[in-house]
Specification:
The protein has no helices and five strands. By secondary structure, it is mainly beta.
């Protein structure tokens, strides 16, 4: 499935036992709509539209510069 330059809305699963998280899928990255804790390189990321898997891959890096700092 070709991904448009503006991305497409998807749900992603980063852990099998957790519910899917809303995200935007781009050609070379996935951006979560809300910050998520404990994501790291080596984990799988599976992308869904509804209950259909449209793709996935291995997380190679994360960017947590957008996350709020908790004290």
């Amino acid at each position: 499935m070709p991904v448009p330059d503006g991305g497409i809305a998807v749900d992603v699963k980063l852990r099998s036992a957790q519910p899917p998280l809303p995200a935007m899928l781009f050609k070379d990255k996935v951006i979560l709509k809300q910050p998520a804790f404990g994501i790291s390189a080596g984990q799988a990321c599976v992308c869904y539209i509804g209950n259909r898997i449209i793709g996935g891959g291995w997380i190679t890096a994360t960017d947590c510069t957008q996350m709020a700092v908790a004290a």
